[in-house]
Structure formats: structure tokens, C-alpha cells
Structure to design on (714 residues):
């Protein structure tokens, strides 16, 4: 009975917390945008499907618009501004009339903005002519927000490039940095060994980054996206290695003499690294310069402590995972000196894989609370209040959430489709997208 | 200048001597030297000395396998000195020299004994034939000795753990106690062998936490073995966390198999 009441209370709590927490993150007020499918001339026609799906997805993923449903779009789709002809009197039922702004601003579309254009071949290159109109304006001249040309190679890469750039320009009008240039680093076994791989945020352009042919895992990217730290099994056991993402070569990192050095994570200035090392015989938390010099111990316990993550805004708070309560590992926070320790999770289940959002207010993590050991789900906690919401449920094991640079998206690993794969979602749990499908893929980190 | 003058002088001397020879043709030859004085009243001259006699010089046996010995024997009469070549050297002097010596030639060798005295010398030779030993059945003795890593894999058992725990259960302590006894004996047979204690975890915890947990399990097993007298410098710990499970099913039977410290020999 007591359990039932607790459960009910918890359900009510989640129901109450949900809009608060997620509202802060993803926002609620949204303009409606329509994105007209483009057509292409000549060889450009072959690339229009990629162009259209890429633009639509970039805009939808940014989560700052309500997407007008495509089924409501008018039949007369403009390709150029001059296609709009102001009628003497607007009649939505006149099928012979020229395209007009009110086709889009009036019901059933009800959009505020319309993106349209076309693609063509010019000197062997792919050209996208893109426009963004505010369709609530009285005439076409006043409506134009963007009118621009985008160039790329005449292939699928070029199609993605011009589409990403057009979408990024649209998002910039609304103060949002596009995710299109961002990268996801992750672990894949598709070469036969676990290695670090990278891909575009939408799953395109998947590339192998490391080739150590042992076990290479737990990637972490410096805030300026110039360095990649990870853990690899060397002749000394699992140790931290660092690569330059500019030269793609290994750069020095001096590991402490320990059986395990892992979970490297940069401070916001990129000058230091926190990590877990078993120098003392127990995995404990340390801070050092980015090359491993000037090592200092932060925690002093005789239990396993892993996954330190420094608050990217304050540079002072650390969230981490520890078994110090005597129960299964839980989430804790402390300051960078190791003082003011506070447990964040309730003590139930196992809590692991914390990740700060870029604003330094919320932590996404994996927790088995309410489930059997090993059945992790993704949660988000407002660190100031301790309130949390559960983002995944009833769909396999879900772990290693990390935030996108926009602070609204989360990339994570899930075996909901059978094997562990990389997925992304909006931080309210919607807009789920599977990004990988080859081999087993895990431990994603989203870098700018 | 000097050379020219001396060659001129030589030419003059030569031509002068030419004239001299031509002119002195009639000069008588010088007288022969006087005969030696006759020896009278001296003892009769000694009888000529006989050469030494080598009674025998033998090798027994004359045919050996490499690494075996052959015995040289000799008897020499009336030698002032006697020696054998091939680095053996002098074998003595006197009216009667007898002796023997063992030799270990690595290939067919001819030994020559030479005896000398005032009357001359005598020599005898013997040849010791050396054959290669028959090919042995390889350096591997009859029962092949197992390698260190094979012995470890065969005799040393895994220690198992509870979920999310690194302390040693009673069954793990019993296993490790038996392992310690066996290891002490094994290290006597394999003085250069060393062990890796691999710490493993089941799939349910996070990879990050399990790496720390596997490390603790390996360290706990190492400390226990060390307390039982297994030398610590032969033991190395290595955590794999949940990266190298020996069983991948999704049930407790399988998870228990993976929560272990496993031993490998190097």
C-alpha cells in the first residue's frame, strides 16, 4: 500500500514536473513554417529528394517551428518569387489562379513562414536558389526574408551541403545555430574492433576515426572541438589517449601509473581534464592539465567513482557517479575541489552516464529507477531543484545521453531495435531518429 | 752529382781490372791448405748411436662417436725427447718412455708420436675416426612439458563475485586458496612465468562503472593471493569491465559466469 502511494505520488510528480523542465529546455511558443518541395532542372533533378528531406529535417530538428502538415499544402507551389501574382480578389477555391501568399497564410496551412526555391545545374555545379518568405506580409517584395544562392558539387554530398546551408540561414534568422555543422562521435565495432567513429548529426557521412584494433571507447571532445580524448586498451591496460581532430594524429597525454584510466572530460576552457583513475587502488576522480601533467586528486573514498563531468557554464560544479552511499552507483555533485558533495538521485537503482546541457542547468543521465538492474532509461534532472523527468520508457535499454550544442537535442544509445544503435531525440522525448544501423554502436557524444 | 762521379770511378776500375786479368795470366795458383795434424792417442771413436725405437703407439678404440674418449698408449725406447702433435706436446724422455692419455677429438684426427735422439728420429701415427652421434629424438623429452600458460589455463580456476560487489565470497576465497597452493608449485617449475588477473563484470552495469568494478575485483584477488604468499611481482591486474564477456545470454546463469576474475599466464 505504501509502495502504491509512493508510486502514485511519483507519477503525479512527473506529470507536474514535465512541462516545467522540458518547457525550459525546448520552449513552447513556436511559429509555423511550411517548406515547399523544390524541383530541379537537368542533373539537379536527381538530387532534389535529398535536398528536400535534408532541409525539412534540419528545420524540424531545430524544434523552434511548428511544421505545417504537408498534406495541407496548396497544389500550386511557387519556385521563384515572380511566381507569386497578387490576385484582384483572393479566392482560395480558384484552382486557375496564380500562387499567392495567402495560399500559405490562410487555413488550412496557417503558416507564418514559407521556404521555397529550386535547384539547377550551372557550370557542372549544383545550385540551390532558396527563399524564405514571411507569408503574412501584404506583397511579395515585403515578404522576402531570405533570397540566396547556394553552390555545391553535383552529387549527394553537394545536395546535403546546399540544403544544410539554406536551412542554417533560415534558423539564423530566428537566432538558432543550426546543428548541421555539428558532429557526433561514437563507438562502433563494425571494423571488427571497437573504434571511435564520427558522423554528421543526421547520421550522414559516417567515418572511422581511430584504428587501434584493441578496444577503444568512451570518446570525449574538447569544447573547441579540436581534440578527442578516449579510452583504449594498451599494453598497460585501459588508458586515456588523445587525438588532435585537426591533424588526426595522437598528441601526448601522460597517464598516471594505474590499472585503469578512463572517462576523460574537458573543463569548459579546454585547459584541463577530469577523469577517473585507479592510482590509489580504487577508481577515483582526478584533475590534470590537458596533457595529463599537474595531476591532483579530487575525491578520497574507498569505492568506485567514475564519469566526472564539469559544468560547462560555471566550470566549478562536477557531477559524477559513485558507490559511496553503499548502494548501487548514484549521481552526485560536488565543487571542483571535491567539497560540498550532494547526492542527486534517490538511491534507487543504478544511475550513470551524466551529461550537462550547454546551459549548465540540467543533467541528462541513464537510470534503472523502477526497472530491473541493467534496464536503463534516459532521464533529465534540473540540478538546482533535483526534479527529474523520464524521457524513454518501454523501449529497450537506453544509455549514454549527451546534449547537442543547441541544448535541445539529446543523442543516446538504445537497443530498442534489437542491437545497440545511436539515436537522437528532442529533449522532450519526441522526434526520435535512428542514426546508425551497421554493427553495434554506442557511447555517442555530440560536438559542435 | 755524387752518383755520376762514383759511376765514372767504377768504369775506370772495371777497365783497369780487365787489363789486370789479361796481364796476370801467368801468376801461379796459391798452395792448398796444410792437412790437419794427425790424431794420436785419442780414445777410439764412439759406435754410431741407434735411432730411438717406438715399440708401439696405439689408439683404443680407433673409432669413436663424437664426445666419446679414445685412449692413446705408447712405449718408446732410447729417445732423448718424444712428443705427440695435435696439442699434446712432450711425453717425456729417457731409455724407456711409456704412457697413455685419453683424447676427445671432435672429428677424425691423426696423432703422430715423434721420438728423437742423437741418432735420428722415429715417428708413428695413429688415426682416431670420429663419427657423428645418431640423431637423438629431439630435445623434447618423452612426455612434453606443458607451457606455463597451458598449466595456468588447466589448473587455476576463476573466482566469482556477486552483482555490483568486489569483496570475496567464501567460494571465491576457497578457489583462491587452492589457486595459491597450486601457483607456488607452478612457479617452482616455471621460474619466469607471470600471471594476469583479469577483472570482468556482467553486462548490467554501465561500461564506465564496470571498468572500475572489474579493476577492484582483480585487485581484491591479487591481495588475497599475496597474503597467502604468492609473490606479488608475478601478478598483474587488468580490468576488462564488461567488454569481454565469456557468455552473452540474458540471464543470471550467464551473468554469474561473467562476474569473475580470470587468470592467464604469460
Amino acid at each position: 500500500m505504501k509502495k502504491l502511494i509512493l508510486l502514485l505520488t511519483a507519477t503525479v510528480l512527473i506529470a507536474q514536473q514535465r512541462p516545467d523542465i522540458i518547457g525550459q529546455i525546448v520552449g513552447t511558443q513556436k511559429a509555423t513554417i511550411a517548406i515547399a518541395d523544390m524541383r530541379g532542372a537537368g542533373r539537379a533533378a536527381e538530387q532534389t529528394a535529398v535536398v528536400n528531406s535534408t532541409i525539412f529535417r534540419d528545420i524540424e530538428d531545430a524544434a523552434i517551428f511548428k511544421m505545417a502538415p504537408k498534406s495541407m499544402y496548396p497544389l500550386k507551389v511557387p519556385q521563384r518569387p515572380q511566381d507569386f501574382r497578387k490576385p484582384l480578389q483572393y479566392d482560395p477555391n480558384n484552382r486557375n489562379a496564380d500562387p499567392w501568399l495567402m495560399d500559405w497564410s490562410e487555413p488550412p496551412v496557417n503558416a507564418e513562414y514559407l521556404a521555397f526555391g529550386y535547384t539547377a545545374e550551372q557550370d557542372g555545379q549544383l545550385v540551390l536558389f532558396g527563399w524564405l518568405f514571411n507569408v503574412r506580409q501584404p506583397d511579395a517584395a515585403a515578404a522576402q526574408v531570405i533570397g540566396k544562392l547556394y553552390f555545391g558539387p553535383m552529387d549527394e554530398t553537394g545536395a546535403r551541403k546546399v540544403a544544410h546551408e539554406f536551412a542554417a540561414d533560415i534558423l539564423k534568422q530566428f537566432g538558432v545555430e543550426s546543428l548541421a555543422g555539428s558532429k557526433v562521435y561514437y563507438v562502433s565495432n563494425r571494423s571488427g574492433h571497437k573504434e571511435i567513429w564520427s558522423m554528421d548529426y543526421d547520421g550522414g557521412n559516417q567515418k572511422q576515426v581511430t584504428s587501434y584494433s584493441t578496444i577503444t571507447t568512451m570518446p570525449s571532445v574538447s569544447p573547441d572541438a579540436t581534440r578527442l580524448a578516449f579510452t583504449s586498451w594498451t599494453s598497460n591496460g585501459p588508458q586515456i589517449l588523445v587525438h588532435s581532430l585537426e591533424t588526426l594524429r595522437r598528441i601526448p597525454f601522460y597517464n598516471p601509473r594505474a590499472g585503469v584510466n578512463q572517462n576523460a572530460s574537458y573543463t569548459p576552457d579546454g585547459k584541463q581534464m577530469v577523469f577517473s583513475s585507479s592510482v590509489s587502488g580504487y577508481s577515483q576522480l582526478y584533475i590534470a592539465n590537458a596533457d595529463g601533467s599537474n595531476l591532483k586528486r579530487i575525491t578520497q573514498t574507498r569505492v568506485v567513482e567514475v564519469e566526472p563531468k564539469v559544468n560547462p557554464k560555471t566550470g566549478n560544479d562536477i557531477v559524477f557517479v559513485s558507490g559511496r552511499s553503499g548502494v548501487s552507483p548514484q549521481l552526485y555533485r560536488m565543487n571542483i575541489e571535491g567539497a560540498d558533495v550532494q547526492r542527486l538521485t534517490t538511491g534507487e537503482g543504478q544511475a550513470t552516464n551524466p551529461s550537462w546541457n550547454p546551459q549548465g542547468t540540467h543533467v541528462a543521465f541513464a537510470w534503472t529507477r523502477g526497472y530491473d538492474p541493467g534496464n536503463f532509461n534516459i532521464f533529465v534532472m534540473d540540478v538546482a531543484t533535483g526534479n527529474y523527468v523520464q524521457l524513454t520508457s518501454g523501449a529497450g535499454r537506453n544509455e549514454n545521453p549527451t546534449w547537442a550544442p543547441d541544448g535541445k537535442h539529446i543523442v543516446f544509445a538504445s537497443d530498442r531495435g534489437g542491437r545497440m544503435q545511436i539515436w537522437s531525440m528532442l529533449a522532450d522525448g519526441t522526434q526520435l531518429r535512428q542514426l546508425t544501423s551497421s554493427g553495434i554502436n554506442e557511447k555517442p557524444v555530440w560536438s559542435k | 752529382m755524387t752518383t755520376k762521379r762514383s759511376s765514372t770511378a767504377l768504369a775506370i776500375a772495371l777497365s783497369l781490372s780487365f787489363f789486370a786479368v789479361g796481364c796476370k795470366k801467368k801468376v801461379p795458383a796459391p798452395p792448398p791448405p796444410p792437412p790437419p795434424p794427425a790424431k794420436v792417442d785419442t780414445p777410439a771413436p764412439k759406435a754410431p748411436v741407434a735411432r730411438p725405437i717406438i715399440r708401439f703407439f696405439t689408439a683404443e678404440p680407433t673409432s669413436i662417436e663424437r664426445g666419446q674418449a679414445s685412449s692413446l698408449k705408447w712405449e718408446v725406447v732410447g729417445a732423448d725427447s718424444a712428443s705427440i702433435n695435435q696439442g699434446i706436446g712432450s711425453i717425456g724422455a729417457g731409455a724407456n718412455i711409456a704412457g697413455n692419455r685419453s683424447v676427445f677429438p671432435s672429428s677424425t684426427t691423426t696423432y703422430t708420436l715423434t721420438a728423437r735422439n742423437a741418432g735420428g728420429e722415429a715417428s708413428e701415427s695413429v688415426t682416431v675416426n670420429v663419427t657423428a652421434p645418431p640423431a637423438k629424438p629431439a630435445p623434447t623429452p618423452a612426455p612434453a612439458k606443458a607451457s606455463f600458460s597451458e598449466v595456468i589455463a588447466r589448473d587455476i580456476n576463476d573466482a566469482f563475485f556477486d552483482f555490483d560487489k568486489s569483496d570475496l565470497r567464501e567460494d571465491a576465497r576457497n578457489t583462491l586458496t587452492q589457486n595459491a597452493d597450486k601457483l607456488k608449485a607452478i612457479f617452482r617449475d616455471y621460474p619466469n612465468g607471470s600471471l594476469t588477473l583479469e577483472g570482468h563484470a556482467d553486462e548490467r552495469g554501465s561500461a564506465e562503472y564496470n571498468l572500475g568494478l572489474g579493476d577492484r575485483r582483480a585487485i581484491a584477488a591479487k591481495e588475497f593471493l599475496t597474503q597467502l604468499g604468492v609473490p606479488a611481482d608475478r601478478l598483474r591486474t587488468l580490468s576488462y569491465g564488461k567488454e569481454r564477456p565469456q557468455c552473452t545470454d540474458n540471464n543470471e546463469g550467464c551473468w554469474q559466469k561473467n562476474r569473475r576474475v580470470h587468470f592467464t599466464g604469460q
